[in-house]
Design a protein that fits this description.
363 residues; alpha+beta; 2 domains; 7-stranded antiparallel β-sheet; globular
Amino acid sequence: MATLRRLREVPRHLLVCEKSNFGNHKSRHRHIIQTHYYNYRVSFLIPECGILSEELKNLVMQTGPYYFVKNLPLHEFITHEFISTFIKKGSCCALTYNTNIDEDNTVALLPNGTLILSLDKDTYEETGLQGRPSQFSGRKIMKFIVSIDLMELTLNLDSKKYERVSWSFKEKKPLKFDFLLAWHNTGSEESTMMSYFSKYQIQERQPKVALSTLRDLQCPVLQSSELEGTPDVSCRALELFDWLGAIFSNVDLNNEPNNFISTYCCPQPSTVVAKAYLCTITGFILPEKICLLLEHLCHYYDEPKLAPWVTLSVQGFADSPVSWGKNEHGFRKGGEHLYNFMIFNNQDYWLQMAVGANDHCPP
């Protein structure tokens, strides 16, 4: 009966909303993007727009590449050559592919050089490494988190700590995973993932891009200064968040009597725009690419436009070990961690950050 009650429970979801201006020196927009490392889907919606500018379209097409490496041993990440080539000279992210965070062993490499291992109890004990119980384990601890600072680890390759980690990865418990990797190169040397991991099965991949024009779209009326909205004047940020989820999920918002799939409709007050441009990018997308997209959308109003706002939404990998920064992330019933920027024509913006049951409060 206790198990049945838990299944019926509605999992906790947390939505944080705030407003600011891109010109404010205390604005947190860059920090929020740069610390959300594992991005699976990026979408933006531009009302009163039928076609993208060439500059924005080129930017969208340049969000890749990323790489898929099969059966990559963990010890490859702790070599001095890898750290010197990819971590010290850029921003490198890696995430195990096709692993379930609540059930499987999962690994992530953060851009700051931190290697995060989320391990089941048996594997954790076999590695001989020091970690801590997962914060979402419950009464019976079944998952452990190991965090390794690669920059510190490789300062002295003869240290006992490096020897222990190397021994664990190579001899004690050699672990291999399929990985997704992405690298933003800030150095002058042209090293590539393809050549570095050529002895393994590696594929270069490009994000999938879907472009569409929405006709006669009913949109909520918003006022940049009113997060809570004003009755009969403007909608609340929470109502906007739900509406965007429906738009990005291609939900029919007509609320017709014979529609048995969804009765959801656009919040009121609303207005109808003749056309809106929707772009969705799916893949392994680095924060640096998202920063460029946001910056370009902020300059969308450098010339007069009919659109009162544009929006940029980012969805994280459901099975990544972290959400923002080093905040531990779990799945439970959803695994969501995402954020949305609502960009107004006066450079004000709303920032909405959402996480699921097994997550800390967004930063």
